[in-house]
Design a protein that fits this description.
Structural class: alpha/beta
CATH class of the largest domain: Alpha Beta
Number of strands: 8
Shape: elongated
CATH architecture of the largest domain: 3-Layer(aba) Sandwich
CATH topology of the largest domain: Rossmann fold
Oligomer: single chain
Number of helices: 12
Strand order of the largest sheet: 3-2-1-4-5-6-7-8
Order of helices and strands: EHEHEHEHEHEEHEHHHHHH
Length: 275
């Protein structure tokens, strides 16, 4: 981008702070970022970093080229309707990280004809290793898409989807995905302890193995299925474990679990998008 847009974050919770922190770490000027939060005491540390802060959402919106809606889905309608006049006056790009709210609902609450990018981030964004799925409505320009991508890349990778409904699948795979891996880690730690390892040893081995496997998969020129085959020697120890997982229906269980997550995402969108 030839010029850096002024950003306004409506809501200054953990995810907003993760994005702000990533932006500043990547050299984005703090003075070009606004943060709006009703609790003034939650803004003091951001102000100390050089951000412009306010307790009035409309003040931040009127100053911004890009407005990041970082509030809980349950309050998004009220927030959107409150800032609608300011949005209609200044016509910024709206980037929503609120799960489950369709762009059509937001557009209606914001007064119509608004440029909206929906984002489904995940919690590893808090440590700059996030994965975000993005969808742009028809009002979004190529320049605005680049602006949204720049913002979200501050916390990890970004991937665009062509259909808004695909964000439900993004939720199932990456949005909720960290919890699946935490569950696997939890189970491996407990199994290791039952085999006689101390809690510390079982935990460190599990976490380092998870990190190592992810790094190998990211850097390899083959897919995870091939990597798994390469470490599964015939009649070896790994084969016995893998056989138990497959015989127990692990692939089918993952399929059912992600489908359930996807379906609930669809339901929430219908519930939260009502007038």
């Amino acid at each position: 981008m030839s010029t850096q847009p002024t950003l306004a974050f409506i809501g200054a919770g953990n995810m907003a702070r993760a994005i702000i922190g990533g932006l500043i770490a990547n050299g984005y000027p703090a003075e070009k970022i606004w943060a709006s939060e009703p609790q003034e005491d939650r803004l003091s540390d951001l102000a100390e970093q050089g951000l412009k802060t306010t307790t009035e959402n409309n003040e931040a919106v009127r100053e911004a080229d890009v407005v990041v809606l970082a509030v809980k889905p349950q309050v998004l309608k009220a927030v959107a309707e409150d800032i609608a006049p300011a949005v209609q006056d200044s016509q910024p790009l709206l980037v929503s990280i609120a799960a489950g709210i369709m762009s059509t609902s937001m557009d209606r609450w914001l007064g119509g004809n608004t440029s909206i990018v929906r984002c489904m981030p995940n919690t590893p964004a808090l440590v700059q290793t996030g994965a975000s799925g993005l969808y742009a409505n028809t009002q979004v320009t190529p320049e605005q898409k680049q602006q949204a991508e720049t913002i979200l890349k501050a916390t990890g990778i970004t991937l665009w989807v062509d259909e808004e409904s695909q964000l439900d699948a993004v939720t199932a795979v990456s949005g909720s995905g960290p919890a699946y891996y935490f569950l696997v880690m939890e189970a491996m730690i407990e199994a290791g302890k039952k085999l006689g390892l101390s809690d510390e040893v079982a935990t460190q081995l599990t976490l380092q193995t998870a990190q190592g496997a992810a790094k190998m998969a990211q850097s390899s020129d083959v897919d995870p299925a091939e990597l798994r085959r390469r470490v599964t020697s015939p009649n070896g120890t790994t084969e016995q474990a893998i056989k138990r997982f497959l015989d127990g229906g692990l692939p089918q269980l993952f399929d059912e679990a992600l489908q359930a997550c996807n379906d609930r995402s669809v339901e929430l969108a219908q519930e939260l998008g009502k007038d």
